[in-house]
């Protein structure tokens, strides 16, 4: 389970990383309008959430007294490097927490704003939350780069080529029965509940 979660979150982190890699410093701070968030602000919010939720998560509430969530939506970074350093700090904290997953603590109760959650449920919440915001980063970056955007997915009008390439790549491999391509992209691992 731990390896699966780490694999999924590494993939989503990579989408953010690849987007940042295509942007100049100025583009990291671009806002569509005054009510919109820049990529820098979205990255700050994700990292701020991670640091609060996952620091000492087994013994402390996930909404730390030192977290100022509203402040995460105000940009106080001056450089792209500052944004990326904070982004990495958040992910480091989160991956350290994920590495603590084991059979004994998977359903351990942890707290967020006083509300109890099973450890696995808290992780699943973030599997919805972090990719939601990373999708915003990708979308804003794509708008900024326009024709210069290097796709992070299947290129437009290239779906059939991609499908053919994947079939060719995996035609010699034996696929596991009942594996879900949604949950186990490019993996032959079968979820326990589908094992016969």
Summary?
With 196 residues, the protein is mainly alpha-helical. The chain has helices at 2-21, 25-28, 39-54, 80-98, 119-145, 159-170; strands at residues 109-112, 115-118. The radius of gyration is 19 Å and the shape is flat.
- How many beta strands in the DSSP annotation? 2
Mean pLDDT score, rounded? 89
**Dominant shape:** flat
Q: Helical stretch count?
A: 6
Which strands sit side by side, in order, in the main sheet? 1-2
Low-pLDDT runs of 5+ residues are 178-185
Distance between the termini: 18 Å
Radius of gyration: 19 Å
Order of helices and strands: HHHHEEHH
Biggest sheet descriptor:
2 strands, antiparallel
Secondary structure class reads: mainly alpha
Strand content: under 5%
Describe the structure.
It is a single chain. With 196 residues, the chain is mainly alpha-helical. Helices cover 50% and strands 4% of the residues. It contains 6 helices and 2 strands, in the order ααααββαα. It has helices spanning 2-21, 25-28, 39-54, 80-98, 119-145, 159-170; strands at residues 109-112, 115-118. It has a two-stranded antiparallel ribbon. A hairpin with a 2-residue loop joins strand 1 and strand 2.
């Amino acid at each position: 389970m731990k390896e699966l979660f780490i694999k999924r979150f590494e993939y989503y982190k990579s989408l953010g990383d690849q987007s940042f890699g295509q942007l100049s410093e100025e583009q990291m701070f671009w806002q569509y309008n005054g009510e919109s968030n820049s990529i820098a602000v979205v990255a700050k919010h994700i990292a701020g959430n991670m640091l609060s939720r996952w620091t000492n998560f087994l013994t402390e509430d996930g909404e730390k007294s030192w977290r100022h969530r509203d402040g995460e939506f105000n940009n106080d970074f001056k450089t792209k490097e500052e944004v990326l350093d904070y982004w990495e700090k958040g992910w480091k904290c989160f991956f350290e927490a994920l590495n603590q997953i084991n059979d004994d603590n998977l359903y351990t109760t942890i707290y967020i704003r006083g509300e109890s959650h099973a450890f696995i449920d808290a992780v699943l919440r973030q599997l919805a939350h972090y990719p939601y915001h990373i999708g915003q980063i990708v979308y804003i970056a794509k708008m900024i780069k326009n024709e210069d955007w290097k796709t992070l997915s299947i290129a437009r009008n290239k779906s059939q080529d991609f499908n053919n390439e994947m079939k060719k790549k995996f035609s010699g491999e034996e696929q596991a029965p009942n594996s879900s391509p949604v949950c186990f992209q490019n993996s032959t691992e079968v979820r326990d509940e589908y094992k016969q």
